[in-house]
Amino acid sequence: MRRSNHDTSMTPAQLERGSGIRTLKKVAPYLWPEDHPWVKRRVILALSMLLLAKLIAVATPVFYKGAVDALAGEGVPPVALGAIGLTVAYGVARMMTVGFQQLRDAIFAPVGQRALRQLALETFRHIHRLSMRYHISRKTGGLSRIIERGVKGVDFLLRFLIFSIGPLVIELGLVAIVLAVLFDLWYLAIVAGTIVLYVWFTFAVTEWRVKLRREMNTQDTDANQKAIDSLLNFETVKYFGAEEREAGRYDAAMKGYEAAALKTSYSLAFLNFGQSFLITCGLIGVMVLAAIGVQAGALTVGDFVMVNAYMIQITVPLNFLGTVYREIRQSLVDMGEMFDLLEQPAEVTDRPDATPLTVSGGQIELQDVRFGYEPEREILKGVDLTVPAGQTVAIVGATGSGKSTIGRLLFRFYDVTAGKLCIDGQDIRDVTQTSLHAAIGVVPQDTVLFNDTIRYNIAYGRDGATQDQIEAAARAAQIHDFILSLPEGYDTMVGERGLKLSGGEKQRVGIARTLLKDPPILLLDEATSALDTDTETEIKEALARAGEGRTVITIAHRLSTIAEADRIVVLEKGEVVESGTHADLLARAGRYAHLWARQQSDEEAA
Known about the structure:
Strand order of the largest sheet: 6-7-8-3-9-10
Largest sheet: 6 strands, mixed
Number of helices: 18
CATH superfamily of the largest domain: ABC transporter type 1, transmembrane domain
CATH architecture of the largest domain: Up-down Bundle
Number of domains: 2
C-alpha cells in the first residue's frame, strides 16, 4: 500500500524521495508505452545516438593530442594522418558529436511531445471529473498554475534527466577509464575525488535551494491568485473604489515573492562559486601531474593538452549539473503536485454496471432524500417530492432552506447521503453521468458565458449545431432580433463571462443554449431573480416556451414568477412544509401565503 503524503512516520526528506520515485514511475509509461511500439523504437534509436555521440566525444581529445605531438615532433600519432589530417579529424569528430546530439533530440522530440500532450489531456479531463465540492474549495488561479508548472516539469524532466544526467554519467565513466589506462591511477583518483566532492556539494546546496524555490513557488501562486481574483471581480473593485486596496494586496504578495526570489539568487551565487572552486582545484591537480610528467619526459606536450581537454570536457557538463539537478528536483516537486491532483479521487463516479438513462416521460421522484455539504450540517432532512412527467413544479423557500441543493443533486453534482432520487423510476446513481447530464437542461440565476461569440455560446448547447438550429433556438428564446441588430450579429464577442451583455441578454443566450440542447427535463435555478421586472416578464415568456412539453423544476425566490406552476412545494429548513397550487396555498394562509404577502407589500412599497 502506498504511504500517505501525511504519514507522520516519514521524514520530509523521505517523503520527497518517495514523491520523486512515484513521479518517475508515473512518467515512465509515457516513454515506454506497451501499445505504441513506434515510441519504443524512437527511444532506443535516440539512446543509440546518445551513446555514439559520447563515444566520439571521448575519442576527440585523442586526435587533438596526435595533432599537437605531430606539430611538436613528439610521440607516435594514433593514426598515420599527419598534423593536418589529425586536425581535420579532430574537427570532424567535434561536428559528429554535435550532429549525433541534434539527431538524438530530433528523434526523441515526438516522444516527448506525445507524453506532454497525453499528460496535459489526462489532467484536464480529470479536473472536469472532480466534484463540485472540490472545485468550490480550490482557487482556479492556483489550480491552473499547478497544471502549468507540472506540464513544464515533465518537459524539463524528459529533456534533462534522459539527455543531461544520463550522458554526463556515461561521459564521466569513459573519461575516468581513459585517464586510468593512458596515464595512471593518480589522475583517476584526483578526477574521481573532485567529482565526488563536486556532486556532494552540488546536491547538498541544491536541496537547500529546492526548499527556497518551493517557498518562491508558493508566493508566486499566491500573487497570481490574487491578481486573477481581483481581475475577475473588476466591477466589484470599481464599485467600492478599492483599486489601491487591491494593489496593496497584490504588492504584499509580490513582496513575499521578492524576498523568496532574493534568497534563491543569493544561494545560486554561493552554489556557483563553490562549484567553480572545486572544479578549479581538480583541474589544477591533474594539470600539475601532467606538467611534472612532461618535465620528466614521461609524457608529451600532446598528453598535457589531452589531459586539459578531458578536464574541460567534463567541467562544462559538471558546471551545468547544479542547474540541471535543481531543475529536475523542482520539476519532480511540480510534477508531484500535478500527480497529487490526478490522484484526487472523483467524489461522484459512475458505477461499473451503470447504464444510460432512459427518459420515457421525465417523472422525477425524491424519496426520503437526505443530504448535507458537511456531515455535521444536514441541509435536506427526508424530502419526499414527485414531479409528474410534463408538469412544472416550483420549489420555494427562504435562503438556506435547501431548494438549490435539490437542483445540484438532480444534476448529480453531489450524491444523496440517504434516500433516492429517481427519473422515470431509475435511481440516478445507477445511470451514467453523461446520459443524465444530456437529459437535463439548466438555466441558472447567473448565466456564465465563454469569452467568445454569441454564436459559439448558443451552439455550446449542441455539438455540431447548424446555423439554422442556432437561429431557431435564439428565436425561441426571443433574442434573435436583438442579435441581428448588433453590428457583428452572431459573431459579436460577449466578453469575459459575458460582461458585454446585460443580465437579460445573457439569460436569453443561456435559455437559447439550453433550448438547442433540447432536454426532456428543465431545471430553472432562480433564472429571473437577478433581473428587473420588465426583463423578468420577457424572460418568463421565453421560459414558458422552453418548458412546453418538458418536465420542469423551477427553483424560485420571487414568487410572482411561479404562480402559474402546476404545483408549488414550500421548503423550510430542509423539509417540505406545504405543497399545492398557488390558489390552494393562498387559501391555506400558511407559510406560502405569508411569503406571498410579504413580497407583495415589498413590491408596493418599492
